[in-house]
């Protein structure tokens, strides 16, 4: 932010600056939507979910899925998404190309949506992948499917500008990273904070 001196304000107009340091109260409508999603999570069974529209998902996620032409869940998605939405720990194993990425990205987006995550809440989900290529692929899918959410996401991998990352580490709600780079931030960067974190994913 630039340094504005009182006398530099044109025509001595008063400038009102609103600084939000507290979370704004959420609307009744959003609270009702979230309650309905949570209730549906308890009532539904995975075999009922033939398409993504049958899952208890926010309209933001459904819009991202529809736009990316994802209509029917794959087996690993059908088996795991509901469990993760119910807050259970999930261990999944499936072949390459079976749709594992969406199987964990959808619950990440939904967990943060249902917790009404904002930029003030910091890091909510951490995805650790073994290679830079995988991290980049996951990041691209997240950008597409999470397009209608308001979360900030960071790709934290070796070979990128460490200085740039260092200053922005506390502004990421979702981090997709490789282990080496993550350790570096954990060791050296006071802005790395996972106090509020809800989801940790090892790929
Ligand atoms: P992954 O196993 O996550 O790397 O996904 C492998 C490929 O399957 C990617 O090209 C995805 O775009 C695609 N894919 C994932 N989920 C679905 C789905 N539900 N419907 C159609 N294609 C999918």
Automatic annotation (TrEMBL):
Domain called Helicase ATP-binding: residue spans = 81-203
Q: Does the keyword ATP-binding apply?
A: yes
GO terms (molecular function) for this protein are:
ATP binding; hydrolase activity; RNA binding; RNA helicase activity
Which InterPro entries does the UniProt entry name for this protein? DEAD/DEAH_box_helicase_dom (IPR011545), Helicase_ATP-bd (IPR014001), P-loop_NTPase (IPR027417), RNA_helicase_DEAD_Q_motif (IPR014014)
Spell out the SUPFAM superfamilies in the cross-references: P-loop containing nucleoside triphosphate hydrolases
Determine the domain of life of the protein's source.
Eukaryota
Motif range (Q motif): 50-78
Q: Where is the DEAD-box RNA helicase Q domain?
A: 50-78
Per the UniProt record, which EC number(s) apply here?
3.6.4.13
Entry's free-text remark on domains? The Q motif is unique to and characteristic of the DEAD box family of RNA helicases and controls ATP binding and hydrolysis.
This chain's function reads:
RNA helicase.
Query: Family per UniProt?
Result: Belongs to the DEAD box helicase family.
Q: Which PANTHER family match?
A: RNA HELICASE
The protein here is known as ATP-dependent RNA helicase
């Amino acid at each position: 932010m630039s340094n504005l001196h009182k006398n530099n304000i044109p025509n001595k107009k008063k400038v009102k600056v609103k600084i939000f340091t507290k979370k704004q109260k959420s609307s009744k409508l959003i609270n009702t939507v979230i309650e309905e999603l949570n209730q549906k999570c308890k009532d539904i069974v995975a075999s009922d979910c033939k398409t993504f529209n049958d899952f208890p998902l926010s309209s933001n996620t459904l819009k991202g899925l529809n736009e990316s032409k994802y209509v029917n869940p794959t087996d690993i998605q059908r088996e795991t998404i509901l469990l993760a939405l119910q807050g259970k720990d999930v261990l999944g194993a499936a072949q390459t190309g079976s749709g594992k990425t969406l199987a964990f990205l959808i619950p990440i987006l939904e967990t943060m949506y249902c917790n009404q995550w904002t930029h003030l809440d910091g890091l909510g989900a951490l995805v650790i992948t073994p290679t830079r290529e995988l991290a980049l692929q996951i990041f691209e899918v997240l950008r597409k499917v999470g397009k209608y959410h308001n979360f900030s996401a960071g790709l934290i991998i070796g070979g990128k500008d460490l200085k740039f990352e260092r200053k922005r580490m506390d502004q990421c709600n979702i981090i997709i990273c490789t282990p080496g780079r993550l350790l570096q931030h954990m060791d050296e960067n006071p802005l790395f904070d996972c106090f509020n974190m809800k989801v940790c994913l090892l790929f």
